[in-house]
């Protein structure tokens, strides 16, 4: 396919959303695209200059162009949702390239400073959400282990887990904390969790070790990492016949921080309304 490399992910993103009924959690859609295309763990380990997975970055750019083309809306944080135009849209290779060119042409027509040359969007215009996410995950990864545990405690408190106690330290057998989730007035679950301040991946043996450590100590397990889980680790977490374990990777962690506005301050951004001034020509 001619054009930038990320164009090959436009159809898989579009198809994944259509198969999900038109909308899906951003992390889930990315994983579905990765699985559908058979992308290997080795490929996912390749990073951009700012440390992000190159493949995931490319998929994000595909989403960005679908948004600019009016096939995806941007109404809800962390959710990719097709517009009415996107629900039934089918694109061949030529259609994908034409979409790319259409977005490029619309950018070139956008008024810019006479001192600043318009640059190709796929090379020089950042995705602000992505930059913020990378900055936030870098800050979290540089916390001390105990600081990360305290941060996870704060997040889990916001989510609704009660009576959280940090138990990390020698003899913890992989359990960093515990808490209680109240399902209703009379039923509650004991939760145990593990915090992994990782840059690398979490493998299935970590999940198995944690499951062994939590036996007799909780009805529900949770592993939180600043990295990501391998496909095998995800399968192990939901293996039939054993206690399921919930997984929160770096992408999901950032979504939760944004949802509960932890460590983030809202900023008002103004854009020039060029149509407003047309009536004064």
List the helices and strands and how they pair.
Layout lengths: L9 H10 L3 E3 H12 L3 H5 L8 H15 L3 E2 L5 E4 L1 H4 L5 H17 L11 H4 L3 H14 L3 H15 L2 E5 L10 E6 L5 E9 L4 E2 L1 H11 L5 E6 L2 E2 L1 H7 L7 E4 L1 H10 L14 H5 L3
Parallel strand pairs: 6-8, 7-9, 8-10
Antiparallel strand pairs: 1-3, 2-3, 4-5, 5-6
Helix pairs in contact: 1-2, 10-11
Brief descriptors of the model:
single chain, 281 residues, alpha/beta, Arc Repressor Mutant, subunit A, Trna Endonuclease, Chain: A, domain 1, 2 domains, five-stranded mixed beta sheet, 10 strands
Summarize this entry quickly.
With 281 residues, the chain is α/β, with parallel strands linked by helices.
What does this structure look like?
By secondary structure, the chain is of the alpha/beta class. The chain folds into two domains: 5-125, Arc Repressor Mutant, subunit A (Orthogonal Bundle); 144-259, Trna Endonuclease, Chain: A, domain 1, CATH 3.40.1350. 46% of the residues lie in helices and 15% in strands. It is built from 13 helices and ten strands. The strands form three sheets. The protein has a five-stranded mixed sheet with strand order 4-5-6-8-10. It has a three-stranded antiparallel sheet with strand order 1-3-2. A two-stranded parallel ribbon has the order 7-9.
